[in-house]
Amino acid sequence: MTRQRASGNTGSIVSPELETPSDDFFMALALEEARVGGEEGEVPIGCVVESGGEVISGAHNRPINLNDPTAHAEILAIREACRRLGNYRLSGATLYVTIEPCPMCVGGILQARIRRLVYGAADEKAGAVDSLFHLASDPRLNHQVEVISGVREQSCRALMKNFFAGKRS
């Protein structure tokens, strides 16, 4: 399991050449998904699954609109990617998500055997990759995921902050 942090963030010890140039591009697509979710009244978290340089699927949170607590962006994007590829394994894929995944979503990522996880901002209350748990790198599990964090971190964090500030006002 490889652990990296995107360059340009506080505490970064990873040089810029270790970050895949396309990470920024695909995270921009995930951010757009998140914005759509926010406009629908959902918590603005967006996700894109990429494989071979192509977007396989994209989704945003929809638990409210679907009356489904499992309808997180990551789960919806994984389901769609598996359907499109005709396989329940996404071995060569990268999942981009704006906020650090929760335990349920990391479970889906591990079950799908996703190779890389790239997320924008940490989730101190529910994050299961770095913040609360370290499920993506737990050696007791039969799969570990390469993790990159902090890609477009400020944009991802600002989207969440603005959404919840709007809810409170």
Residue fraction in strands: 15-25%
Q: Report the mean per-residue pLDDT as an integer.
A: 90
Point out poorly predicted stretches. Answer: 7-18
The biggest beta sheet is recorded as: 6 strands, mixed
Strand order within the widest beta sheet? 1-6-5-4-2-3
Question: How many separate helices?
Answer: 5
Calculate Rg over CA atoms. 15 Å
Tell how many strands the DSSP assignment holds: 6
Helix content: 25-40%
Q: Distance between the terminal alpha carbons, to the nearest Å?
A: 43 Å
Order of secondary-structure elements:
EHEEHHEHEEH
| Class by alpha and beta content | alpha/beta
Query: What shape does the CA trace take?
Result: globular
Protein described:
The chain is an alpha/beta fold and 169 residues long. It is 36% helix and 19% strand. It has five helices and six strands, in the order E-H-E-E-H-H-E-H-E-E-H. The chain has helices at 21-39, 63-66, 73-85, 103-111, 153-168; strands at residues 3-5, 46-51, 54-60, 94-99, 116-121, 146-149. A six-stranded mixed beta sheet has the order 1-6-5-4-2-3. Strand 2 and strand 3 (54-60) form a beta hairpin. Helix 1 runs parallel beside helix 5 (153-168). The longest helix has 19 residues, at 21-39. The protein is globular and about 45 Å long. The termini are far apart.
